[in-house]
From TrEMBL:
Residues covered by the LRAT domain: 51-178
UniProt-recorded name of the protein: Lecithin retinol acyltransferase
Annotated signal peptide: 1-27
TM helices/strands, residue ranges: 196-229
Swiss-Prot/TrEMBL catalytic activity: 1,2-didodecanoyl-sn-glycero-3-phosphocholine + all-trans-retinol--[retinol-binding protein] = 2-dodecanoyl-sn-glycero-3-phosphocholine + all-trans-retinyl dodecanoate + apo--[retinol-binding protein]; 1,2-dioctanoyl-sn-glycero-3-phosphocholine + all-trans-retinol--[retinol-binding protein] = 2-octanoyl-sn-glycero-3-phosphocholine + all-trans-retinyl octanoate + apo--[retinol-binding protein]; all-trans-retinol--[retinol-binding protein] + 1,2-dihexadecanoyl-sn-glycero-3-phosphocholine = apo--[retinol-binding protein] + all-trans-retinyl hexadecanoate + 2-hexadecanoyl-sn-glycero-3-phosphocholine; 1,2-dihexadecanoyl-sn-glycero-3-phosphocholine + all-trans-retinol = all-trans-retinyl hexadecanoate + 2-hexadecanoyl-sn-glycero-3-phosphocholine
Predominant location category: cytoplasm
Topology in membrane: Single-pass membrane protein
Length: 231
């Protein structure tokens, strides 16, 4: 029988970090913010197989450039799990689709334009190469790996996110440094008894994100979660 504690911790962290993926909507609008028009980014400096990074509020979104203004990237999305209509699936992922995809742990490796991928954010090129030194695969190999993975896949913030996808494609090993850093930060907050207020805030945020009452959450999730993180 699998230990439920790591699973509960994984679900908790995914709930807590879900909001960092959601694109903000303009005031007074109930629709998605339109992506920049084609040509917004200068793609002449991009090469096939390049690893593209788009810094967001707390986390970074990653993709592999395939050439001709196309980027392969992993996105949580519910549609591939409920329909085979490629025209619907290929439309830009909305917040609702993304949230339901995270809840259902469903995603897709999709190919979008640079504009739709970056969504107005700044783009860094091959910034992670310095962390892997001589592990960088050939550009064509990286692009080929990305193309082979296009389609529906499982999603997990901790074990299979957009960073795992690109590091596998370009470096041959699926890792996520930003997830590891976040987990270490949470552990430090919980272990440091001087950060009582911070720990309380983490707990309150967890309750809100989980959408359950404290009386049911503490015995079933928080106590084993704190023990697991402190272990």
């Amino acid at each position: 029988m699998k230990n439920p504690v790591p699973q509960a911790a994984s679900l908790l962290l995914e709930k807590l970090l879900l909001l960092v993926h959601i694109r903000p909507l303009p005031a007074g609008s109930d629709r998605e913010t339109p992506a920049p028009a084609p040509g917004y980014y200068d793609t002449s400096c991009f090469k096939r197989g390049d690893l593209l990074e788009v810094p967001r509020t707390l986390f970074i979104h990653f993709g592999i450039y395939l050439g001709e203004n196309r980027v392969a990237h992993l996105m949580p999305d519910i549609l591939p799990a409920i329909t085979g209509d490629r025209r619907q699936i290929q439309q830009v992922v909305t917040n609702k689709r993304l949230i339901l995809g995270v809840i259902a742990r469903t995603a897709s490796v999709r190919v979008d334009t640079v504009e739709d991928f970056a969504y107005g954010g700044s783009i860094l090129v091959n910034h992670m190469d310095r962390l892997f030194e001589d592990q960088v695969l050939g550009s064509e190999e990286a692009a080929h790996r990305a193309e082979k993975l296009v389609g529906t896949t499982a999603y997990s913030l901790l074990w299979n996110n957009c960073e795992h996808f690109v590091t596998y494609c370009r470096y041959g090993a699926p890792v996520s440094f930003q997830t590891e850093k976040f987990c270490e930060t949470v552990k430090m907050i919980i272990r440091d008894q001087r950060s009582v207020l911070a720990s309380v805030l983490v707990g309150l945020a967890s309750i809100v994100c989980l959408g359950v009452a404290p009386s049911t959450t503490l015995p079933t999730i928080f106590i084993p979660f704190f023990l697991w993180m402190a272990g």
